[in-house]
Amino acid sequence: MPRLNFSAVAPFALLLASSTVAAQRPAAFTAEQVRSNPFPNELTAASSGSRIAWAFNERGQRNVWVAEGPEWKARRVTDYRIDDGQELTSVSITSDGKHVIYVRGGEHSGNWQGSPPNPMSNPLAPKVQIWSVPFTPCASRNPCEPKLLAEGDDPELSPQGHRVVFLKDRQIWTVPADGASAATRLLTANGDLDNLRWSPNGDRLAFVSNRGTHAFVGVFT
């Protein structure tokens, strides 16, 4: 009676195969895994040496991380513990590797770049600010306390790494990378200025002056 034997065995074999496939199937990908997965961006490197820095978004807590060769052990250099919606952008390292410069605040990839996000409805509106933090750990505190350089955006480090130029109120300002002195306005020019670029040796600064219907390229020496 081969047919009767086959009919009895086939359902059991099918059940066994289904159980094996189910046991081998990986666990479902959950929404919690998506929310908790850290997101790195803004990776940058010093112009010399083996120091790198980047921004890390962990459950909405955005911080700057660094590493140095040959070990490449990641280390956090800022201590922002709240999911306040303030993004970190324009991460850069001075040429001597001593300081990490970054912008905190704003919505550079959104439709409302002129209005920093305020998801916590703070009565004091968030600002777009340029900060500097030491690359190496501090003896008194780890991470070190970041230093506010100025309110502004789009910082550009000079090739020597000692000076930062940036935009504030659509004009060009400058400040020491270590925050040793207050920011000052670099020049006065008509139009809305942007697209700052240093020459390789740092003795010239190019920029664009937008005049609405037209624009000029300027060079400051």
What does this structure look like?
With 221 residues, this protein is mainly beta. It has a domain at 37-180: 6 Propeller (Neuraminidase), CATH 2.120.10.30. The protein is built from two helices and 15 strands. It has helices spanning 2-24, 31-36, and strands at residues 39-45, 51-58, 61-68, 75-76, 88-93, 99-104, 129-134, 147-151, 153-157, 163-168, 171-176, 184-185, 192-198, 205-210, 215-220. A hairpin with a 6-residue loop joins strand 3 (61-68) and strand 4 (75-76). The model has no long low-confidence stretch (mean pLDDT 88).
Summarize this structure as a short list of keywords or feature phrases.
mainly beta, 2 helices
Poorly predicted runs: none
Structural class: mainly beta
Radius of gyration of CA atoms, rounded to a whole number: 26 Å
Distance between the termini: 100 Å
In N-to-C order, the SSE pattern is: HHEEEEEEEEEEEEEEE
Looking at CATH, the homologous superfamily of the domain at 37-180 is TolB, C-terminal domain
- Tell me, rounded to a whole number, the average pLDDT: 88
